[in-house]
Amino acid sequence: MKNAYDYLNDVRMDFDIYDEEPITEEEVYKMSKISKTEKKGLKKKALIIGAAAVFAVATGVMAADGNIGGIIKTITLGNNIFVQTDPEAAHPLPEELYGRLYDKQGNIVTAVTEDGLDSLYDENGKHIDSDRLMEIFEDALGDEADFYEEDEADKVTWSSLEEAQAAADFDIKQPGYMPEGFAFESAHAYKDKEGSLSGLYVNLDYSDGNGNVITVMERLLNEETAFKISTDGEMEEVLINGINAVILNGRNINFETQDNISVSIHGGNIARDELIKIAESIV
Fold this sequence. Notes:
Strand content: 25-35%
Shape: globular
Distance between the termini: 29 Å
Helix content: 10-25%
Number of domains: 2
Structural class: alpha+beta
Strand order of the largest sheet: 6-7-8-9-14-13-12-11
């Protein structure tokens, strides 16, 4: 059974939502754990925020099938795959949804943009809101779109790196550099729906004491923990001490270490150069 925050697998993750929604980085990242995977396992989602979250399910299903509309660029780090898409492109929907979604004129919708999710209707001409849309996805796609609300009861927090390391199945990578004022606060992971905690995942939180948090998310890479994500924001490939890395929207950096650890650093509003310095101190 996979850990809760493994549900980046084959998911579309739009980091532009940092600017659009009054929510924390943790909530955004938990929200992005929506996916379709060909492997068996629990599909979880922590926080649903309107139509954007439902769109992540749709494009996540398509990503798994290699069917993403408007691809601009693809970067593979070795195990993890990053796809940049055209935000104006219409994405084809899974066939299971055909005949369930209509436009205002009564035509069956088989492809949709993210903005177009606000203009969907049922066969009776009734407007479909985001809650109803999620119900339709769950009914049509079954386990591929299983919305599960994760709360703080699912979160396991360790106050020291030693405690986190004891629970991990790999050697945790500790940054040697943090921006001025930031220091280790805690480590955490999430239980799955059955209450199990995997040692394949650990998050490290660094705080400046003023509500700003930098999270270093780590996972031991294998066939099941490798993931695919897509974004219609900016995607930049850089070298970190000779290792390929991907920066998303200047705020999130992702790379794989030589000893097979996937690292994602989420820095909120810290500068791109600071993200790179943190990454360089890990690799």
